């Protein structure tokens, strides 16, 4: 898939996450591509960096950090890193490796969608609307 400025790249080896997140992005008019290969993601970044890359890989933490470093060396495009847990300085290490933001599991598709919408606003898109049915955005009495 050819990435464009309204695209989200999901780098994940978890099929359920890919389906949830890609569906949420597409409902909001974003293009969503996915891969489970860091090498393929790097090739995509070299040709057309996406608006946002969501990384959720079942790899050892150090390997995930290396993926972040590799992508960051290609482009300043935002990386949202989904961590299975956070211990000690994990989040600081992730930022130092190039992650723009970190979310600790469970990563709700609505939260990831909100992050993508925030990045879209920073990029100046005018065609996206904020989600209205997210439980996180409902008013409390």
What's the arrangement of secondary structure elements?
Elements: E1 7-12, H1 15-27, E2 31-35, H2 38-47, E3 52-56, H3 61-74, E4 79-83, H4 90-97, E5 101-104, H5 109-122
Parallel strand pairs: 1-2, 1-3, 3-4, 4-5
Helix pairs in contact: 1-5, 2-3, 3-4
Mind explaining what this structure looks like?
This protein is α/β, with parallel strands linked by helices. 42% of the residues lie in helices and 18% in strands.
Through-space gap between termini = 45 Å
Order of helices and strands: EHEHEHEHEH
Strand content: 15-25%
Structural class: alpha/beta
Low-confidence stretches: 125-141
What are the salient characteristics of this protein?
141 residues, alpha/beta, 5-stranded parallel β-sheet, 5 strands, 18% strand, globular, disordered C terminus
Short structural summary:
This protein is α/β, with parallel strands linked by helices and 141 residues long. It has helices at 15-27, 38-47, 61-74, 90-97, 109-122, and strands at residues 7-12, 31-35, 52-56, 79-83, 101-104.
């Amino acid at each position: 898939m050819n990435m464009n400025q309204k695209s989200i790249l999901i780098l994940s080896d978890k099929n359920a996450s890919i389906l949830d997140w890609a569906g949420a992005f597409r409902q909001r008019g974003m293009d969503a591509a996915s891969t489970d290969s860091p090498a393929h993601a790097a090739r995509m970044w070299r040709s057309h960096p996406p608006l946002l890359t969501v990384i959720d890989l079942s790899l050892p933490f150090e390997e995930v950090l290396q993926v972040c470093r590799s992508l960051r060396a290609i482009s300043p495009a935002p990386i949202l890193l989904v961590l299975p847990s956070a211990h000690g300085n994990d989040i600081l290490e992730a930022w130092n490796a190039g992650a723009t933001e970190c979310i600790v599991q469970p990563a709700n598709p609505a939260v990831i969608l909100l992050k993508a919408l925030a990045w879209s606003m920073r990029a100046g898109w005018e065609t996206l609307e904020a989600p209205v049915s997210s439980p996180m955005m409902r008013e409390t009495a």
